[in-house]
Amino acid sequence: MTLDKQCLKKYKEEIVKIEIQLKEKIKENRRLKDNFETLFETLQSQHDKLEKQAVSVQARLTNLQRKQDFTERQKEVELGNIALSTAVPKQKGQQRENKVQKEKKVTYDMFKFSTSSCSYDIMGILLDWICDAHLRYAVTDQPTRAIERFSSTEYILERVLKILPTSVDMLREFPPNNFRISLPCLQFIYWSLINVEQASGQQKSNLSSTLRRLGEELYRSKTVKFMDVSSDKSDYPLSPTKLDKSKDGIYFRSSNQHVRLLSSLIILKTLSQVDLVAHVFDVLKNDLKSDVCKELFLYYQATPVVLQYLKPINKAFMGAAMDIFLQLSADTPFQTPFLESCGNEQWFRTVAMVLRAPTQDNKLLEKLSIILQKLSKFKTNKRFFDVYTIVGIIQEILRGCSTDQAFLALNLKSILFNLTSTGGVQS
Question: CA 20 to 30 Å from 231, out of 83, 153, 158, 243?
Fold first, then answer.
């Protein structure tokens, strides 16, 4: 009997030992899996960036021809203005005036044709869209007809891809500070980009040249100025002068917060030039001090737009992105809606990547811990902390905290307390 008890005790000890080893193996495998997912996502981001650059170079060949045509048209405008500003010799006054009027008419007609053609193309596509998806369906008694087709990704993407390339020219030709025209156009472009991004990556790659031109147009804000060049009345009294850079205060440089915010979000989705993106972040941070802009930011569901810059692959902008999130998480009426917009896999996957980064910025971690502490109060977020093993990562960081990181350690302990005590205190 004594021998049997000893064997049984030894057997139980071995089982306990094996269970502990098994748990350690499971924990290690989970950690390896998370590291692999992080590495895969980083490599995928790099691959997407390289693919985008390759497609952009190829698409630029087509775009250069369009740009050359526009440059030639601009030169014609400049030549027309130079001709108009040249003094007319008295002995050839009538002949010179006729020549100037002729050049003026050619320039004006050319500009008018370009603007009209661009406007008519978009108008035709939009009217066809409205008729097909709304008007025709409203008067057609066909119960078997599937209305889902008009809200399907393929249907919307097909229409969007027809309009986006032409919208760049529309932005260039809009009269300055006419928000009744420019604001709906910017809204259409923004929501179109969201739809394109949610579709296949290949579609976005094919649009890389158009997206770059969109961002550049909004950032540089070129507009056409009109000037009366003739004292006598004629059928074409106005002639367009050369394009002026950033002097009219439109789009990204607009005095209207709504227009400026939308332009900033579109630029962040379309451009990658470091100095331009840094400037946009500075403007956006300043604008988000206003409650109006906070409300607009949430209305346009812009958290993912900034979130992409929090990834370690965008190291130069991680601090700027975190500052914006910290602003939105402050105690304001918009705190809860913002925190709810962070309660998803995309946010926590990115946070896990930040926490696992080889080199850590203490200030960035402190700001992130403030937001995570608030998110840990929501019951629905507990599963994201578990799935992405953020609790284990926080415990490791906490063990490595030095004496001068008391604030970070306090926040990390608060996160662990919220998650382990009641599993969150809000629904």
Answer: 243
How far is Cα 34 from Cα 422, in angstroms, rounded to an integer? 26
- What is the SS3 assignment for 86? coil
Contact call for residues 318 and 359 (beta carbons, < 8 A) = no
Confidence of residue 264 (pLDDT cuts 50, 70, 90): very high
- pLDDT higher for 314 or 127? 314
| Residue 133 scores a pLDDT above 80 | no
CB 110 within 8 A of CB 73: yes
Q: Identify the DSSP state of 141.
A: -
Which parts of 86-152 fold into alpha helices (H)? 93-130, 136-138
Q: How far apart are the C-alpha atoms of 52 and 206, rounded to whole Å? A: 8
pTM over 0.70: no
Instruction: Give the 3-state secondary structure of residue 236.
Output: coil
DSSP H helices, 288-405, are 291-299, 303-307, 318-328, 335-341, 345-355, 362-375, 382-387, 390-399
Helix/strand/coil for 34: helix
Beta strand 222-223 pairing with 226-228: unpaired
The length of the chain is 427
**Pick from 409, 333, 339, 400: nearest CA to 369:** 409
Residue type, 229: V
